[in-house]
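Quick one:
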Amino acid sequence: MTDLIVRRAKEEDLSQVYLLWKEMMEYHLTLDSRFDLAPDSREAYLEYLHSILDNYDYAIFVAEQDRKIVGYTVGMILSNPTVFSLSRYGFIAEMGVNSTHQRGGVGHRLWEYARRWFQRRGISVIQLNVSPRNERGYNFWTQVGCTEFLHIMWHNIPKDV
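Output:
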């Protein structure tokens, strides 16, 4: 993994980031149909990436090997309501690694890079969401030291109510 480079994403990387995101979302869709994407999800996702690319409180990191983007992560700094003692925290919005490069250290390198970015900005806590059906993802996040904090619940309102 010595030829793997982790760096901030550039505008010209975003189409490859989209492909990794799409692969990740297709995997999640096999786990749960609630991950179904809108017909214009490609355009919406690329617009989102462009909107955060130069935002100081957001970072898109890519893992590049042989001039190909094989993984990425999106981190952001968020604020808690003032009732909490922890005023700001880091949030990993997503991480995707090409299926052919999974279990090869790419995710760990992206995690370490993002963690150092948060730390340099004075952030001491990182949060993220992981699907309970995503056993691979859950195992990865616990392996790097994450612990459970909240459970997100879902309720479909019946049409006849």
